[in-house]
TrEMBL record:
PANTHER family, per the entry: WITH PUTATIVE URIDYL PYROPHOSPHORYLASE-RELATED (PTHR38710:SF1)
Gene3D superfamilies, A to Z: 3.30.230.120
Organism: Spirosoma validum
Domain GHMP kinase C-terminal, chain residue ranges per copy: 247-309
Superkingdom per UniProt: Bacteria
Pfam families: GHMP_kinases_C, GHMP_kinases_N
Protein name listed in UniProt: GHMP kinase
Keyword Nucleotide-binding: yes
Keyword terms: ATP-binding, Kinase, Nucleotide-binding, Transferase
Residues spanning the signal sequence: none
Alphabetized InterPro entries for the sequence: GHMP_kinase_C_dom, GHMP_kinase_C_sf, GHMP_kinase_N_dom, Glucuronokinase-like, Ribosomal_Su5_D2-typ_SF
Domain GHMP kinase N-terminal: 79-171
GO molecular function list: ATP binding; kinase activity
Length: 331
């Protein structure tokens, strides 16, 4: 039996990064890019490495570039961590797994280190394959928690729930991470939004080499935990952007959404350090008349465009700074 599962890239549209601060967000799945996992029964448990997991390099510069984009170990640790966390979940839930082994491998087309959640997509696809192989059902609201725990506890990756929620639910989802809700039920309130209500969206991302996730040093979390008024007020304002955006999408108010996307980034930039490279993406897109905000922690942006003429300007102008523009395929 050959099992093949898939998970897609994602883009935060509004409210990012308030998901890590009991806020609210709206995100979309980006089916232009995906990670797939293939699993089949075998005598021993075998994780098959991919070309990007190699320890053989053409030169020291090839090694340097590989480590810059993929880290020191490629994707194999993601599979190992997901398998371990799956086994621990089953044990904690007293789910008895049959005594059978498997071989597993992954592939991905998601651009690395540009804020489109390539690592978590591999983990989500792995969980889906394991659930199918062992015939285990994990409740949909719980699965994002397990994916986040895999990254945070096993691999030390700093992340929030938003990315994992949209990759597990897919489509377009409004997420409420209010502290009371999180503490009472162990997860947020997740409301799917009909993707046909979305306006014309574009995504642009850097095509030159990025840096490994989790390497951007901002002390916002520490300042928030200390109760700094500016950080708390800004995060609350960013969460309100998502709340207002939810209503604007339902009434298909494109003008309001355009302003909210810009406001999201403007608020973020008051408390986060924004690199010149990332800021240039925002400024170049806005110079074309489009709105622009980060899809994640940086490296890619999302926004609204008015018509094909504006989209063509985005293609041309962003290419000048080594960025590629796509129209996200949500469903």
């Amino acid at each position: 039996m050959l099992i093949e599962t898939r998970a897609y890239a994602r883009a935060g549209l509004l409210g990012n990064p308030s998901d890590g601060f009991f806020g609210k967000t709206i995100a979309i799945s980006v089916r232009n890019f995906g990670a797939s996992v293939t699993l089949y029964r075998s005598p021993e448990l075998h994780i098959e490495p991919q070309p990007q997991d190699t320890n053989v390099f053409r030169s020291l510069y090839h090694l340097r570039d590989s480590v810059s984009t993929l880290g020191y170990h490629g994707g194999v640790p993601l599979l190992k961590a997901a398998i371990k966390k799956f086994a621990e979940y089953c044990e904690a839930e007293q789910i008895r797994l049959p005594n059978k082994n498997f071989s597993i491998r992954y592939s991905t087309s998601i651009p690395r280190q540009v804020g489109l959640s390539g690592s978590s997509a591999i983990i989500v696809a792995t969980f889906r394959a394991l659930m199918q192989f062992y015939n285990v059902e994990i409740p949909q609201p719980i699965l994002p928690n397990l994916v986040l725990a895999t990254e945070a506890e096993e691999l030390g990756i700093t992340a929030g729930l938003q990315d994992r929620v949209i990759q597990c639910y897919e489509g377009c989802v409004y997420m409420n991470f209010d502290r009371t809700i999180m503490e009472s039920q162990g997860h947020g309130q997740y409301e799917p939004i009909e993707p046909r209500l979305l306006p014309k969206l574009y995504i642009a991302y850097n095509t030159d080499l990025g840096k490994q996730s989790g390497r951007v040093h901002n002390d916002v979390k520490g300042r928030w935990l200390k109760g700094e008024p500016l950080v708390i007020e800004t995060m609350n304002a960013i969460a309100n952007v998502a709340r207002e955006g939810h209503d604007a999408i339902l009434r298909q108010d494109t003008e309001a959404l355009n302003e909210l996307v810009n406001r999201n980034f403007n608020l973020r930039s008051t408390i986060y350090n924004i690199s010149d490279r990332n800021r240039s993406l925002i400024e170049k897109a806005r110079s074309c008349g489009a709105s622009a905000s980060f899809t994640g922690s940086g490296g890619s942006i999302i926004g609204l465009y008015r018509d094909d003429a504006m989209l063509n300007r985005l293609f041309v102008e962003l290419k000048k700074i080594n960025a590629r523009v796509i129209k996200p395929y949500v469903v």
